[in-house]
Amino acid sequence: MLWIAALVLLMGLAFGPTLWVRHVMRTHAADRPDYPGTGGEFARHLLDHHGLNDVPVDITEEGDHYDPRDKAVRLSRALYEGRSVTAVAVAAHEVGHALQDRDAYRPLRWCHRLVSTANLTDRIGTIVIFGLSALGGAALSPRFFLFGVAAVVLIGLIRVAAHLVMLPVEFDASFRRAMPIIDQGRYLPPEDMPAAHAVLKAAAYTYVAASLFQVLNLFRILRAFR
Fold this sequence. Notes:
Pfam families: Zn_peptidase_2. This is Zinc metallopeptidase. InterPro entries: Zn_peptidase_2 (IPR007395). Keywords: Membrane, Transmembrane, Transmembrane helix. It comes from Hoeflea poritis. The chain is mainly α. The chain has one domain (about 1-225). The protein is built from 9 helices and 3 strands. Strands 1-3-2 form a 3-stranded mixed beta sheet. A hairpin with a 4-residue loop joins strand 2 (about 65) and strand 3 (about 70-75). Helix 1 packs antiparallel against helix 9.
């Protein structure tokens, strides 16, 4: 019973923030015909206003983000073409990352290096784990399986760390950059500012939700090894 209770609690911690983020985004995604432009147009305006004319705004199917390698802001089609509080806030958030890159904001660079490292260890680790499992099965030696478990734990911890260290970067993009831009530029009516604040908070906590999901995934893999 304790094992089941711990699993249920862990699943709640892992999926709860993700569901909350999605709920906040959907709640404030209602179409607003009174807004003068779409999320994509707003991002383009902010980039040009801050001298980032060479940074494109693209439509993506991989989730809203700023790509520091290609120097591009990428928005989902719904937000790129939408006129809503969510579209405006998320566009400003991603432009906030572009401003971090322009300003050589060191935490952003550190985080993307760690994410790149995590992606590399994922690929290498998958090969190592399958190799050790095969060797362990062929040699009937538990040592190879233990090395495999150690590799899984290391890969999982690197991935969790990569998501967690993004938190201060996300908060900087939301509250030190995007929120002042929206507020001081009076891009939204005063009555919409609380909703924009909620969306920016959800955008900042996206990586917390992702890191908790990685913890659950690590727990699941270790349970399979057990």
